[in-house]
Design a protein that fits this description.
By secondary structure, the chain is of the alpha/beta class. The chain folds into two domains: 134 residues, 2-Layer Sandwich (Nucleotidyltransferase, domain 5), CATH 3.30.420; 141 residues, Nucleotidyltransferase, domain 5 (2-Layer Sandwich), CATH 3.30.420. It has eleven helices and ten strands. The strands form two sheets. Strands 3-2-1-4-5 form a five-stranded mixed beta sheet, sandwiched between helices. Helix 9 links the parallel strand 9 and strand 10. The longest helix has 29 residues. The two termini are 24 Å apart. 48% of the residues are buried. It binds 5'-O-[(R)-(carboxyoxy)(hydroxy)phosphoryl]adenosine (KG4) and zinc ion (ZN). 5'-O-[(R)-(carboxyoxy)(hydroxy)phosphoryl]adenosine binds next to helix 5 and helix 6. The site of 5'-O-[(R)-(carboxyoxy)(hydroxy)phosphoryl]adenosine has 19 residues, from helix 5 and helix 6.
């Protein structure tokens, strides 16, 4: 089963050719980081224009790198939502047109299901029930799947996503965009105990997250310590390194704390850490350290960095088990900015 995946939910235009959900023949990603850098965040209107400009090239390049032709694919998979509506529409319209022109079946994919499947690419034997900590710039949630396709969201952020919380403080401190990778790097030289952050208590039994209090606390520390934004290209002073290390530590401790409670409650067979923030070196190490100790559960899975941030290989992988015999195209299929994860 050879599937073309297309992803355009936020600021990466991506296409990939994947065989049997695990053999990645090509994975092409056109990043828009340079377009949005000057604004310190994704500008939706610019994002859709960039997707329009890039999508044809990205799909052709995916075929070129894989060394195969359109006629050879068995189907097309596309991210239907959630995400920025103008961005999603570019991918969905392109995929529908291509399915119509080639007669190949089209399967729409939920972006978060795609992130979950990013772990299956390198580990096709992942067992259910699984618990996935999904952490990105747009989402932070704990998802339980008792069986394939049967998803239950058992915790989600009540305000910012973890990546968004990292990006915003990095922007405020003048550290560059996107902030997550910069904070990851700078925090290695900082003291994570210098600045206190109190972890919010969520008392209604849900395993939700909240990060906005950390942002407020960080702004207070910035004012009290008299920290000024770092000039472009300048080396951040010790106090900034300590602040970002303390801030990152608080975010990682919150994520791990809720994942630990969920694991104890649900006892899954597999634990997954996915989404762009799963690139974070402290989070990766803490996740492994926490859950591999004691030999339970049997499987801890964190994809390689190439598959954690948005890509189309994960979309193709998620769709692969869902292609049935029927190639009929649903012309009513539409993008959905707030698509819920149900199953
Ligand atoms: O999954 P993704 O590519 O897009 C969304 O679906 O949002 O995630 C992007 C997020 C950004 O917030 C970025 O700052 C964060 O992932 N990120 C990181 C790292 N690499 C990317 N955060 C922390 N440490 C990293 N190394
Ligand atoms: Zn994503």
């Amino acid at each position: 089963m050879l599937v073309l995946g297309i992803e355009s939910s936020c600021d990466e235009t991506a296409a990939a050719l994947v065989r049997d959900g695990r053999e990645v023949l090509s994975s092409v990603i056109a990043s828009q980081i340079e377009t949005h850098r000057a604004f310190g965040g994704v500008v939706p209107e610019l994002a859709s224009r960039e997707h329009l400009r890039n999508i044809g090239y990205v799909v052709r390049q995916a075929f070129r790198e894989a060394g195969c032709r359109q006629e050879e694919i068995d189907g097309i998979a596309v991210t239907r939502g959630p995400g920025l509506i103008g961005s999603l529409l570019v991918g969905v319209s392109y995929a529908k047109a291509m399915a119509w022109a080639t007669g190949k079946p089209l399967v729409p994919v939920h972006h978060i299901e795609g992130h979950i499947f990013s772990a299956f690419i390198e580990n096709p034997g992942i067992e259910y029930p699984l618990l996935a900590l999904t952490v990105s710039g747009g989402h932070t949630s704990l998802i339980h799947a008792a069986q394939p396709g049967r998803y239950e969201v058992i915790g989600r952020t009540r305000d910012d996503a973890a990546g968004e919380a990292l990006d915003k403080i990095a922007k405020f401190l003048g550290l560059g965009y996107p902030g997550g990778p910069v904070i990851d790097r700078l925090a290695r030289d900082g003291d994570p105990r210098r600045f206190p952050f109190s972890i919010p208590k969520i008392s209604d039994g849900r395993l939700d997250f909240s990060f906005s209090g950390f942002k407020t606390a960080a702004l207070r520390h910035i004012t009290e310590a008299g920290i000024r934004p770092v000039r472009p290209g300048a080396r951040p002073p010790r106090v900034v390194l300590d602040l970002v290390a303390s801030y990152q530590r608080a975010i990682v401790d919150t994520l791990i704390g809720q994942a630990k409670k969920a694991e104890a409650r649900l006892r899954p067979r597999s634990l997954l850490l996915v989404g762009g923030v799963a690139c974070n070196s402290l989070l990766r190490a803490s996740f492994r350290e926490t859950f591999e100790a004691g030999g339970r559960p049997p499987g801890v899975y964190i994809p390689s960095p190439a598959y954690t941030t948005d890509n189309a290989a994960m979309i193709a992988a998620a769709a692969t088990p869902r292609f049935s015999g029927s190639p009929s195209l649903d012309l009513e299929l539409n993008a959905s900015a707030g698509l819920p994860l149900v199953g």
